[in-house]
Amino acid sequence: MKQTDNIMKAEPGKCFRRKIDGVIFGDEIYLGTTCYLDGIKLEKPIQENPDDFEEIDIGAETEEAD
């Protein structure tokens, strides 16, 4: 993973998953303020940080769903 300011870029063949609710993102994310978790609006928005995400193989989630 590479991070520049608030932009995180995953390694080739990987994407990001938010740890707290399992939402899958693409291979590049912009850290900012989150107002929703797992589709539920938060009472108070939270500031995202790199530790909130993990890199996973791009095919990992679809393989588990099959």
Point out poorly predicted stretches. none
Give the radius of gyration: 12 Å
The tally of beta strands, per DSSP, is 7
What count of helical segments does DSSP give? 1
For the largest sheet, list the strands in their spatial order. 1-2-4
Main pleated-sheet profile? 3 strands, antiparallel
Mean pLDDT: 88
Overall structural class, as computed from helix and strand content, comes to: mainly beta
Please write the string of helix (H) and strand (E) elements: EEEEEEEH
Spatial separation of the terminal alpha carbons: 28 Å
- State which percent range the strand residues make up: over 45%
Percent helix range:
under 10%
Indicate the overall shape: flat
Q: What does this entry look like structurally?
A:
9% of the residues lie in helices and 48% in strands. With 66 residues, it is mainly beta. A three-stranded antiparallel β-sheet has the order 1-2-4, with no helix packed on it. It is flat, with a radius of gyration of 12 Å. The model has no long low-confidence stretch (mean pLDDT 88).
